[in-house]
Amino acid sequence: MPDIILRNVQKSYSANSPKAVSDLDLHIGNGEFMCLLGPSGCGKTTTLRMIAGLENLSDGEIVVGDKVVDSPARAQFIGPEKRGMGLVFQSYALWPHLTIERNTDFGLRLRKVPKAEREERVTKVMKALDIEKYRTRYPSQLSGGQQQRVALARMLAVNPGVLLLDEPLSNLDARLRLEMRAELKRIHAEFRTTIVFVTHDQWEAMTLATSIAVMNEGTLQQLGTPNDIYDRPANRFVAEFVGSPPINILEIGAGHALDLAVNEWLRPRLGTRGEVGSVGIRPEALSFTTSEAAVPSGSFRHRAEIGGILPTGGSWIIELKVDGRIVFATTTEAPTLRGGETVWLHARPTALHVFDKARNRLEE
Ligand code: ATP
Predict the structure, then answer these.
(1) What family is it from (predicted)?
(2) Which residue's CA lies nearest to atom 10 of ligand 1?
(3) For range 323-352, the mean pLDDT
(4) Burial letters for 8-20: b for 16+ Cβ neighbours within 10 Å, e otherwise?
């Protein structure tokens, strides 16, 4: 399966609208499961549609293997049907008058694949997606989730080298969504298809992807493994977009006791790393204890008061207050403390994400 390479891709829908995608460089390797992640309007769908050939580039180029599939400068454009990619969108359309088997078979018939091979491939994907039992039913006799599986099966049956999925699980309830994620992972492992998956759901991206491209306002913010994105966010946008409850941000210069304290604590430890603009601490990396002696040596610490305690089913979100400033910690141990009690909040140095004034990560 060929790699997909986007070079300096630009997209404007009209001369006077802001760019939907700018300066995008992306290398999608063979067999990768790449998630394009970002808020609504950040350019994810536009990017996917350009890879598919459903949207032209304004500038830059897309190369698939050794073929330039779109390059305005070279007046080169290869249509979607010749790119060997399968697409499943949020709204998938099954043929209502065809059985599930015929729906799954549809692309293979179109490609005039011989009958024996068609049967073999359809049976294989139907088994993989657990829809064999619906073979003779019609789409209207299936649930939304089952229909979505048929849409995927139809795509997989033609064995596309690349599968492009735009929020394909968005119509499903929470449980089905989870099941389908597991299913997609299995499909990816079994068929070794390159998958590009658009989502605005960070958990979806974290659980599925081998690499995540985080986008905002048409530009790539960070490309990395789910762990990279979570543990070493390249900038404030990525740090704040990924993680729930969201990362605590202390603004240096905000004048609050906690913000000042963390700045004081950090300054001698930063050396020549540059000027701090803000510090992020993920809620699960923020701990608290009643006795200062229990704070690990070398950790940042500060006195705080317990505010609210919010049970979330198996874990708790704890509100910690310092002079009216609130930060959140999470814990999986049932809290024995109550609101109003005084504690020491603490965090290990490695748990502090330090950003400069331009909101980019200050590298260690
Ligand atoms: P969502 O998650 O809401 O689908 P997205 O991240 O996929 O958002 P895009 O759909 O790629 O974002 O849109 C990027 C930008 O381009 C937005 O500002 C959007 O309004 C604009 N846009 C998208 N499609 C068109 C179009 N056909 N004509 C004009 N502008 C468009």
Answers:
(1) Belongs to the ABC transporter superfamily.
(2) 45
(3) 92
(4) ebbbeeeeeeebb
